[in-house]
Structures are given as C-alpha cells and as structure tokens.
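fwd from M.: "can u put these together and see what the complex looks like"

so here's what she sent:
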Amino acid sequence: MEQFSIPADRSPDLVADIGFKPAFEVTLSYAPTHQEATPHGERIFKLITGGTVTGRIEGAVYPHGAGEYSLRRADGVTDVNGHVLIQDQKGEWLYVRNIGFARMDGYYRVTSWVDADVRSEHSWVLGLFFIGIAKPAAEGVLTISYYEVL
Amino acid sequence: MIDRRELLAGMSAAGVLANFSEPSEAAEPARAALPPIKEMAGVRYRWAFSVSVFFKERIAIDAPFRRTFVPAIGGDIWGPRLQGKVVPYGGADFGGGGGPLDAHYIFQASDGHYIYINNRGYMRRVDWDPITALDRPLPPLKPGERIKQDFVAPPDSQVPLRMRTSPFFEAPRNSPHDWMNHTLFIGHGLRRTDPDRTIFTYYEVL
C-alpha cells in the first residue's frame, strides 16, 4: 500500500506561523429569546434589534430582519448560526455570517465570512474569513471582536 | 434570555458539563507536553496538530459558480493533540472556484476513531483583486470538442498564495477527541509538489 507520509513534512520548521490583526468590533442587541425543541436540538431564536460597528468598518447593525438561529446541542454546546446586516456610514451594505461555538464555560468563538460590494472600500474583506471573540456586554447585548487571520 | 444558572444546574445534573473543565479534561495530554500558548492582539492560540493531505485528481466543473473536485487520496496527521492518518479517498474538496474551499473528508486517529472534517477557507494569490472574480469568459466549444476539466494547483514557490482555513470537526462523543467538537480552529495551508500535497498546520483558538 502506498504510504502517504513524508518524514520531512514533520519538521518543526513547517509548523507555520499565523497571527491575528484587529479588524472591527460589532455590538449586537438582541430581542428576548425564543427556544424550540427540534430534531437537531434546542433551536434558539434571537432577533437582532440593532448595534454598532467600529474599527476598520464603521457603521450600524440593521435592526430589522437579521438574527441568530443557534442550536444548543445535547452536550450543552451551542452551534452559533448568526446572520447580520451592516450599513456603513455611507449607507453601503455588508453581510456577516457567524458560525462557531458558545460554551457553558464562557468560551464564545466564531468564524465569520463577510460580503461587501467588490467596488466598495470594504472589498478587502472579500475572500477572507475572520475570527470573532464574543463577550456579553450587558443583558441582551453581545460584543464580538473580529480579527483578520495573518 | 435564558437563565444561565438554571441551565448550568440542569447540565451539571445531566453530566454533560464533565467534558468542559479544560484543565482537568481527562483526555488532554499533560500540560508539559503541549506547545506554548501564543498570543497576538489579545487572541490566544496553540498548535494542536498538522495534517498532510495528498492529491491526484483535480477536476473543475464550469457551473455558474465553478465547482472543483479534488479528492484526498491519503495523508498523515501528527502533533501534540492528534495523530493518525487521512482516510484514502475518504472525501474531497468540493469548493466553488474563486469562492471558499469546502472540503469534506475523514481522519482516522491512531486509536482507531474516525473524525469528520469540514475544512472551509481560502487559497488565493496574495495580490488577488476580488473584482476579477466577476468575469470569467469561457471560449465556446468547437463542434465535437470535449470539455477540458483538469486543472493544476501551483505550489507556493511559483505563485505567492495565502491559504487559511476554518475547519469544523465531528469526533466521537465518548472519545479522547471530544474536545474537537467544541473548539474553534484555524488552519494554515502550504502547497507542496513532488508529491502533490498540502501541509496544514492547525491551531486551536483558546
């Protein structure tokens, strides 16, 4: 049988460096939660009622029609599934998709994909993904700090 | 909002919190065996393991959102928190061209457990301009001409590429790999030829 292993690939030199660079920060306000038992687990519906965006993108979270539809699994971990619409200060739209884990121990990490118009000043976000570190800011308010992966 | 304390109490009673107290996690190797925690801009992360994935077939389907098919023909897994192999032809990258990589395949850990990986991310030229992704002119086929769907992925030495991925794993619940079910990872990809493969370095985001 063919061996799919090259000893030189295991060189410590090939443990590639990565890094993180602050990109933007989003504060999300949520409406009261609804929770439903579904075949997949507990689906948690949270409508997003507003928020702010600061950093390399400055704007506001659109308060109508965006939300989170996360799933609390049998092991207590929540699979985050968030959809956010942002308008920058000029009124241009961006879309943010968050997927990740919210754990009972407070660990709340997401990967985010952002769509922007290819002609806009935000086109640098295209084709990248970001990681987000989320922390509760107040009752019903979450702050997510986003980082570009270097 | 959900009452967190109430939920915690319920979870605790059901025994589902057992896997969570990170430092005492039974399956975790001794702290001394883990590489140092790195930190940049406030993000803490740590090398978890590396994977080499070997390739042969490379097929591009010129659908409206160009689809590629690149099976994982095998591979190797090593590092502090996971060892094993990539199951030969256990899956492929099915990503849309110009769009994200989207690979689905299977690991087999050295203890025999199977782990599913969905590896999503990007592999793009360092100087890529996203506006160029809008236009994709295709020459018309000549009568009787066969559609050519093979393509070649260049090594990093020929084209400066930046490949980063955000893998999500599913591992058996009652196994030493359960931590992968609730940890965010970042992958770094390095293209290599002779033989054709990518070396992924996976970090856990702490």
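replying to her w this: Residues 52-127+146-206 of chain B form a domain with the Porin fold (CATH 2.40.160.20).
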